[in-house]
Amino acid sequence: MVLTGATWRASTRSGSTDRVEAADNLPGVVAVRDSKDRQGPMLAFTPSTWPSSVDKVKRALSAAPAGTEPPTPSARQRARTTA
C-alpha cells in the first residue's frame, strides 16, 4: 500500500524509543507503523474500525500482569525466524 501524502504523527502514548506512528489524514484509511522501521510493514484500518481497535489494545494492555510489557515487534519477528 502506497500512502502518498500521509502525514505521520507519533502516538501520545508511545514511549520515547518504541514509538507507534499513525496517519489519519487520507480518505478511507488510518495507517499505523513502527517509527523505527518506516519502510517496513504497516497496519491499515478503516476510520470506522480504528477506535475499536485502539480500545481492544488498551484493554489487553490493562489486563497484563503488573510489571510486564507486551513483546516488541522486533521480539515477535525474532521468535518467528528462530522457530
Strand content: 15-25%
> What Rg do the Cα atoms give?
14 Å
What is the molecular shape? globular
Averaged pLDDT, please? 79
Total of domains = 1
Return residue spans where pLDDT drops below 50 for at least 5 consecutive residues: none
> From the helix content, strand content and strand pairing, which structural class follows?
alpha+beta
Strand order of the largest sheet: 1-2-3-4
Q: What share of residues is helical?
A: 25-40%
Number of strands: 4
Number of helices: 2
End-to-end C-alpha gap: 28 Å
InterPro entries: DUF397
Region (Disordered): 1-22, 59-83
Pfam families: DUF397 (PF04149)
Protein name: DUF397 domain-containing protein
Report on this structure:
It comes from Micromonospora andamanensis. InterPro entries: DUF397 (IPR007278). By secondary structure, the protein is of the alpha+beta class. It contains two helices and four strands; from the N terminus they run ββββαα. The protein is 29% helix and 24% strand. A hairpin with a 2-residue loop joins strand 2 and strand 3. The protein is globular, with a radius of gyration of 14 Å. The protein has one domain. The mean pLDDT is 79. The longest helix is centred in the C-terminal third of the chain and has 14 residues. The N and C termini lie far apart (28 Å).
